[in-house]
What does this fold into?
Amino acid sequence: MKAPALAVCVCLGFAAPAAAQTGLRGYEVSIGAVAMGTMPFGESDATFSRPSGSPLLVFNSDISLGPGPGAEVHFGRAVGSRLAFEATGTWIFTTIRAKVSTDIDGAPAATLTEDVSRLSVEGSALWRLAGDMRRAFYVRGGAGWMRELAAGATLAETGVIGNAGVAMKYWWGASSPSQRRRLGLRLDARAVLRSGGVDLGVSGVRLAPAASADLMIGF
Amino acid sequence: MLLALIGVLLLTPNLNAYLKIGFDIGGTVVGIRWPNGVRYFVTNRDVPGVPAAELRGAVERAFSTWTTAGSSAVVSEFVGFVNVEPGVDDGVSAIGFVPLDEDTVLGETSFLIDEMTGEIVESDIVLNSSFPWSVAAGGETGRHDVESIVLHEVGHMLGLGHSALGETELLDTDRRRLIGKGAVMFPIAFPAGNIADRVLAADDIAGVSDIYPPPGVTRETGSVVGRVRSGGRGVFGAHVVGYNISTGAMNATFSLSAEGNFVLSGLKPGVYVIRVEPLDDASIDSFFDTDAAVDADFRAVFSPQLAVVPAGGRGSDMDIEVQPK
It folds into this structure.
C-alpha cells in the first residue's frame, strides 16, 4: 500500500516547480508558419578538357536552395524547471536555384529553378534563459530526419536536419500556475542545418536561417 | 547481299538517346550491336614505334576500358594475329595500320553487314600509318597515342556514333582546331602526345550502356525527355546537354525527330542543367547522314527549368524554345 502513495508524491514534486518557473503547464502544442532563408551550395563549373589538360569553362553555375515558406507543428513537454523537450514536424516548400552564366557559346545567363518540398521530424531541447509567467526566452537545439521531394515526388531523398537558435513564448492571460488551458504566441529564430537530401553538389552540413511564428495552446 | 559501311555513316536508329551507327535493313533502321561479343584479329604488321604485339596490348586495353568503365555487358575476344588488310571485305574483323591518303583521319571503322539478316559480318579498324604513333605508357611528344585512338574507334565498332561534347574553332584552312572536349567519342582527337582520351567520360559510358545495358542499369539510371522548338516548329539535330550539378558530369544527345523530340537517358539520379546548342563544332556529316535536315541556325540557350532525374524512371519533360541566330 505504501508504494502507490509514494509515487504520487514524487510526480507532484516535479510537476509543480516546472509549471511555476517555465510557464509550461504539462503539455503544449503550437502550430504556425515558418520561413526558411537561402542555403548556398556554392559555384561549380561545367568544363571540357583542353589539350593541355587544364579545364575549359563551358558555363558556370551557382547553386542554392530556398528561400521558401512552410508550416510547422510542435508538441512539447516541460521536464524540469528550465528544460523542455519537443517534437517538431515541418513541411517546407522551397526551390533549387541554379544561376548559370558565362556560357562558352553565349547562351544568355539565366536562373533555372525546380520546386522542392521537405518534410522533417525533429526532436529538440529548449533551455529557459529568462522570463516570468507570461513570457519566457529560450535557446533551442535539436536534430531529426528529413525527406526531400523534388519535382513533385520524381526524386525523393532522405537526410538529416538539425536546428540551433532562440525562441520566445508569450502566454495571454497567464497569471497563475494552476491555470490549465492557455493560449500563447511563439516566435523562433534559428539556423537550419541540412545534411543529405537532394544532392546539390556539396557533401557535409549546409546552413540556412529560418524564422517562425506559432500559436500555442497549453494544457 | 552485303552492305558495306565505311567510316561512321550514321542513321538514327529510332528516337533514343545517344547517336548510334545504324543501317537500313528492308526499310527498318537497325543499330550496330554485337549480341555474342566481338571476336577480332590484330594485323601482324609492325609500324615505327608500334610492334604488332604492342598494338594488340593497346587494343585489349581499349576493349577492357569499355567493359570495365562503360558496360560490363560488352564482350570481346582477341582471336589472333592475321596477315590481312583491315578495311577489306574478307569476313575477318581486323584491327591494324594502313596508310591512308587522308591527312586529317587518324583512324576509321568500317562494317560489313548482311542486308538480309542484319548480321554483322565483319568490322575493321584502320589506323592511318601515315601518322607517327606511340604506345608509350605516358605518351610520346609528336606521336599519336594508339590506345586513345583505338578506344574511340572501338566505340564505333561497338555501335556508338560521335558525341558533340567538344569545342573547336574553324581555321582558315577549313580545318578545325580542338579547344576542348568532354567525350572520347568527340570526332576530333587530342593532339599528338596527349593520352587524355584513354579515359571514358560520362557521356561515353552512358552511350555504350544504352546499347549494352549492364545488369541493374535501368534501375540505377533515369532519363529526361523533351522537345526543342523554334517559333513553335520542331528543331532536328539540336545538341542537348545535361549537366549534373552534383557530379559535374555532362551527357548529351540530339533532338532526333521533326518535332524536336529528345531523350537523354542513362543519367545518374539527380538535378541537371539542360543546355541546348546548335551542332557547329564539327562537320554535320560526322554525326548524321548528309541528307539529314539538321537545323544549326539558332543560338545556344539554357532550359528555364532544372531537370530532375529519378533512379529507374523518366524524369522531367521539358519544352525548350530556341531563337534563330
